[in-house]
Amino acid sequence: MGIVIDHEARKRAIIAKSIQLFSEQGYDGVTYQKIADSCAIARTTLYKYFRNKRHIFNTAIWEVSYLLIERFEEILSSRTSTVDRLDRVMRAVLTLLFEQRVILTVILDYVLAAQRAGQQMDRTISRHTIGLRRILHRLVVEGLRKGELRRINATLATELLYAQMEAAVLRLTVSQNADYDELSRMLHQTIQNLTVPSAGSRSKSRRA
User: Fold this and answer.
1) At what angle do helices 154-170 and 122-145 cross, to 10 degrees?
2) What residues contact 17, with CB distance under 8 A and at least 6 apart?
3) pLDDT > 70? residue 208
4) How high is the pLDDT of residue 194?
5) What is residue 78's DSSP assignment?
6) What does the pLDDT read at residue 34?
7) Three-state secondary structure call for residue 162
8) How far apart are CA 183 and CA 110, in angstroms?
9) Which of 45, 146, 158, 160 matches a 20 to 30 Å C-alpha distance to 131?
């Protein structure tokens, strides 16, 4: 009987080892042969799974995106308030950023290297982030319609929330001083600042 190979498990292992190589040597410093050697397989075997290292890199990014989509679907289908779902979406993104810290660093390194080489990365970045922007905008518009959010410009509010995510990415990858609890409180406070106070909280504020 021949050896049964779990191809999905091998594919995941290739991605994991490739991302580790990218984080250690930079995207440009890693060759297809280095990936094959790291995985202890021949180049011909590696070709059965990925066409080139860019294919591996893109697959890793999309897998992270799919994880986020799964979490979003669960949150968006719940019957809680718009503000609660907005808060949960932001925390889901933050949690995933911390979970995928290594690949996040690799992505930033790749983008910066591409920009230094004169490549325009705006469209590529937009393609990977448009889903999150649309979800945030959809929830902001819904919150305005239901009177849960203050009368604000929906686009500006969306950009404010998205900017908080960008700040988290910079702390994770550049300054290396990201603290999950601190960033989570910051995101929550931003949402609260956009939220219409309840009658109870307004009366407490007046008494104070």
Assistant:
1) 130
2) 35, 38, 39
3) no
4) 95
5) S
6) 95
7) helix
8) 25
9) 146
For residue 168 the two structure tokens come to: 């988290």
Locate 57 and state its tokens. 């890199």
- Token pair for 93: 């993104």
Beta-bridged to residue 195, according to DSSP, are: 149
Residue 86 pLDDT greater than 90, yes or no: yes
Using DSSP's 3-state secondary structure scheme, residue 195 falls into strand
Query: Residue 2 in 3-state DSSP?
Result: coil
d(C-alpha 84, C-alpha 185), whole Å: 14
Average pLDDT over residues 51-63: 89
Residues with Cβ < 8 Å from 85, sequence gap 6 or more?
75, 76, 78, 139
Q: Distances from the Cα of 68 to the Cαs of 38, 89, 147, in angstroms?
A: 28, 9, 28
**Which helix (H) or strand (E) element contains residue 102?**
helix 101-116
Out of 66-70, 100-104, 189-193, the most confident range is 189-193
pLDDT given at position 202 = 42
Contacts of residue 125, defined as CB under 8 A and 6 or more positions apart, other chains included, come to 111
